[in-house]
Design a protein that fits this description.
It contains six helices and two strands; from the N terminus they run αααααββα. It is mainly α. It folds into two domains: 32 residues; 97 residues, no CATH class. Strands 1-2 form a two-stranded parallel ribbon. α3 crosses α4 and α3 crosses α6. The relative contact order is 0.12. This is DUF4806 domain-containing protein.
Length: 133
């Protein structure tokens, strides 16, 4: 009986130590994750606050732009750094969306564009989708 008590006590202490290590690991992981920086071409444009900013961002993400691939990859990296630490997909989607759009601009879109402008036709949508896929 005393052996069972000793074993139980040792297991409880080990459990506490493991939980403390796991908690410290979470803190270290969040500290070690680099802070996201808005890519140079998108400074002053993100989050998109008006139609002019939206058109400028879409131009940067269009195939016609000289630095199309670099712009897309930089924006994807920025968004990935913004959402990489988050615990759920819904939190990632919300954070990525908020990094790209204000609610006022977002309100002029619907997903497929039946009653408003089409969101899935935007280059920004494609970047968000690729980032979270």
């Amino acid at each position: 009986n005393t052996n069972q008590i000793k074993v139980s006590t040792v297991l409880e202490n080990m459990d506490k130590k493991i939980n403390k290590l796991l908690e410290n690991d979470k803190r270290t992981h969040s500290i070690a994750f680099p802070l996201p920086k808005i890519p140079a071409p998108f400074i002053e444009l993100l989050p998109i606050t008006n139609i002019n900013s939206l058109e400028a961002v879409e131009q940067l993400l269009s195939v016609d732009c000289d630095n199309f691939n670099r712009n897309v990859e930089e924006l994807k990296t920025y968004l990935l750094l913004k959402v990489g630490n988050l615990p759920s997909l819904s939190a990632c989607i919300k954070t990525a969306f908020d990094a790209c759009f204000t609610r006022e601009v977002a309100s002029i879109f619907s997903m497929h564009g039946k009653t408003k402008r089409s969101f899935i036709k935007l280059g920004v949508y494609k970047v968000i989708h690729e980032t979270l896929s």
